[in-house]
Write a structure and sequence with these properties.
single chain, three-stranded antiparallel β-sheet, 6 strands, 22% strand
């Protein structure tokens, strides 16, 4: 189910939760570790949450997700404005922490100093805005930010190379 939509530097991001496992996922234009990619966020009637949907590419197949009806009914688990969905997952194991730390470390090293600074600024702002995030939510946020910053830099590099080729 869809648990949130946001924008990082003008680019859409969605958060989803698996109803059975309660695991949450951050989905953007950059494929996440599961290979899922955000294709479109749409709302035919504007800000009406009942009509908001996110189209996700999962293994080449298009899937549309929406907010759970229980999230939308007042007094029945409607999330507070600006707050993340409750994360009932257990804390990551030591092995999960180690593997995730290695993956984040590799992504960090692949960034330029400017990209690292940009990632720090974005992460600080998001974490200040959501101080109750669990370790898993923080990790997912950082992973999404690093992917976003790297993608922006790659697009910028391609534009520059295209500009130089025309000279």
């Amino acid at each position: 189910m869809l648990t949130g939509i946001a924008s990082f530097d003008g680019k859409p991001v969605a958060t989803l939760m698996d109803r059975q496992s309660k695991e949450t996922y951050v989905i953007s234009e950059v494929p996440n570790p599961q290979g899922w990619k955000l294709v479109e966020i749409s709302s035919p009637t504007g800000a009406d949450l009942e009509t908001v949907s996110a189209m996700i590419s999962v293994g080449g197949e298009m899937v549309t997700v929406r907010y759970d009806e229980r999230q939308l009914k007042p007094g029945e688990g409607k999330p507070a404005a600006g707050k993340l969905a409750k994360d009932d997952r257990p804390p990551p194991s030591e092995d999960e922490k180690k593997k995730f730390g290695e993956m984040i470390g590799n992504k960090w090293k692949a960034l330029s100093k400017d990209q690292q600074e940009q990632a720090k600024r974005i992460a600080k702002a998001k974490m200040d805005a959501e101080p109750g995030m669990t370790d898993r939510q923080k990790g997912e946020l950082i992973n999404g930010i690093l992917d976003h910053v790297k993608t922006d830099r790659a697009a910028e590099q391609r534009r520059r190379e295209g500009d130089n080729a025309g000279r």
